[in-house]
Amino acid sequence: MERSFSEALKQRRTYYSITNQSPISDQEIECIVNMTVRHVPSAFNSQSTRVVLLLGESHQKLWQIVKDALKKIVPAEAFVKTEEKIDHSFACGYGTVLFFEDQTVVKGLQEAFPSYQENFPGWSLQTSAMHQLAIWVMLEDVGFGASLQHYNPLIDEEVRRAWDLPEHWHLIAEMPFGLPVGKPGEKEFQPLEERVRIFK
Fold first, then answer.
1. Can you give the residue ranges of the Nitroreductase domain (predicted)?
2. Rounded to the nearest 5 degrees, what angle is found at the Cα of 140, between the Cα atoms of 155 and 84?
3. Phi, psi (deg, nearest 5) at residue 92
4. pLDDT, position 126
5. d(CA 59, CA 90)
6. Long-range contacts of 129-132 (CB under 8 A, 24+ apart)
7. What pLDDT, on a 0 to 100 scale, did the predictor assign at position 27?
8. CB 133 within 8 A of CB 99
9. Is the dihedral of CA 110, 112, 116, 122 positive or negative?
10. Omega prior to 121 cis, within 30 of 0
């Protein structure tokens, strides 16, 4: 029985312990990404979000890029733990989704609608966030565990070179995913009365 959207959203959690197994085919993963990119809304229908799906060797290549970049700035004695975290939390997964925003689209909207030009970068990030949540919920709904990482801008240039991506694609986040191991930690919620106000 399929879960409702509200139930799927409620079950979404951050998983740091994942394996390189998949409960669905690669084609079905591609369908999740394609459906999200096509149907998630965006300000002014800008459709500025760009997504790169990395599987297999490409997934491993990304996390090697991350480790190489971090090795240049993290002290040697601390890098051991950094490498262990990446190897056992992210690189060991089945794949990674990269989220980008096309700055050509953003700048084009700024020029076309100058009265809103200061808002478009923020609206672009909101669009990206909606794509991130949609893909995250849908991946978890089919049995994956995922987390959201931000190694940008440290890895931006090398990522663009590695997969020949346009310069105007701005990396926002990385989402490693795989079959979850165990259960995620309990999530504590702040009181709703402190976060929501309703007026009638």
1. 9-178
2. 45
3. -80, 0
4. 98
5. 9
6. 130/40, 130/41, 130/42, 131/36, 131/37, 131/40, 131/49, 131/51, 131/99, 132/99, 132/172, 132/173, 132/175
7. 98
8. no
9. negative
10. no
Q: Which residues of 20-41 are buried (b: 16+ CB within 10 A; e: fewer)?
A: eebeeeeeebeebbeebeeebe
Q: Alpha-carbon Rg of the chain, whole angstroms?
A: 18
Angle at 173 between CA 170 and CA 176, to 5 degrees: 135
Q: Which pair of structure tokens corresponds to residue 35?
A: 């459906």
Residue 137 tokens read as 């919920």
Tokens of 152: 């940008």
- Which of the residues in the chain have pLDDT under 70? 1, 185
pLDDT number for residue 182: 80
Total-model pTM? 0.95
Give the pLDDT of residue 187: 83
